[in-house]
């Protein structure tokens, strides 16, 4: 299994290739806010572990193993965003919170959160109930 840091790279490489058709070291460095030399080190590691194929002057591509994991990581990120949105987390907190938790949950927990999101999608009146609790909590907080 990839480490959290490897997951961040695979996720970004997958997104870049999906959006632009390619992923350059400089693009990855910019997306992850890290130094290009760290990116070079990591892509070499990802190459050794068969997630990507990296050729210095030709760029990099995901192997089928890298693609499969990349897709799962992007879906996991999107699911967790949707989950936090559904439970009423403020938009400004969502991206950073997902980046903070996404690597630290088992796939079992991810799948169960997926069930919960699906439950809310199928029962929008439950989302409205939850909103009432949310509003009540905020009112009580405001009084303190
Ligand atoms: Mn992410």
From TrEMBL:
<keyword id="KW-0804">Transcription</keyword>
<comment type="function">
    <text>Central regulator of manganese homeostasis.</text>
</comment>
<comment type="subunit">
    <text>Homodimer.</text>
</comment>
<feature type="binding site">
    <location>
        <position position="77"/>
    </location>
    <ligand>
        <name>Mn(2+) 2</name>
    </ligand>
</feature>
<dbReference type="InterPro" id="IPR022689">
    <property type="entry name" value="Iron_dep_repressor"/>
</dbReference>
<comment type="similarity">
    <text>Belongs to the DtxR/MntR family.</text>
</comment>
<feature type="binding site">
    <location>
        <position position="99"/>
    </location>
    <ligand>
        <name>Mn(2+) 1</name>
    </ligand>
</feature>
<dbReference type="InterPro" id="IPR022897">
    <property type="entry name" value="HTH_tscrpt_reg_MntR"/>
</dbReference>
<keyword id="KW-0238">DNA-binding</keyword>
<dbReference type="Pfam" id="PF02742">
    <property type="entry name" value="Fe_dep_repr_C"/>
</dbReference>
<dbReference type="InterPro" id="IPR036390">
    <property type="entry name" value="WH_DNA-bd_sf"/>
</dbReference>
<feature type="binding site">
    <location>
        <position position="99"/>
    </location>
    <ligand>
        <name>Mn(2+) 2</name>
    </ligand>
</feature>
<keyword id="KW-0805">Transcription regulation</keyword>
<feature type="binding site">
    <location>
        <position position="102"/>
    </location>
    <ligand>
        <name>Mn(2+) 2</name>
    </ligand>
</feature>
<feature type="binding site">
    <location>
        <position position="103"/>
    </location>
    <ligand>
        <name>Mn(2+) 1</name>
    </ligand>
</feature>
<dbReference type="InterPro" id="IPR050536">
    <property type="entry name" value="DtxR_MntR_Metal-Reg"/>
</dbReference>
<dbReference type="InterPro" id="IPR022687">
    <property type="entry name" value="HTH_DTXR"/>
</dbReference>
<dbReference type="InterPro" id="IPR036388">
    <property type="entry name" value="WH-like_DNA-bd_sf"/>
</dbReference>
<feature type="binding site">
    <location>
        <position position="11"/>
    </location>
    <ligand>
        <name>Mn(2+) 2</name>
    </ligand>
</feature>
<dbReference type="InterPro" id="IPR001367">
    <property type="entry name" value="Fe_dep_repressor"/>
</dbReference>
<protein>
    <recommendedName>
        <fullName>HTH-type transcriptional regulator MntR</fullName>
    </recommendedName>
</protein>
<keyword id="KW-0678">Repressor</keyword>
<dbReference type="Pfam" id="PF01325">
    <property type="entry name" value="Fe_dep_repress"/>
</dbReference>
<feature type="binding site">
    <location>
        <position position="102"/>
    </location>
    <ligand>
        <name>Mn(2+) 1</name>
    </ligand>
</feature>
<keyword id="KW-0464">Manganese</keyword>
<feature type="domain" description="HTH dtxR-type">
    <location>
        <begin position="1"/>
        <end position="63"/>
    </location>
</feature>
<keyword id="KW-0010">Activator</keyword>
<feature type="binding site">
    <location>
        <position position="8"/>
    </location>
    <ligand>
        <name>Mn(2+) 1</name>
    </ligand>
</feature>
<keyword id="KW-0963">Cytoplasm</keyword>
<dbReference type="InterPro" id="IPR036421">
    <property type="entry name" value="Fe_dep_repressor_sf"/>
</dbReference>
<keyword id="KW-0479">Metal-binding</keyword>
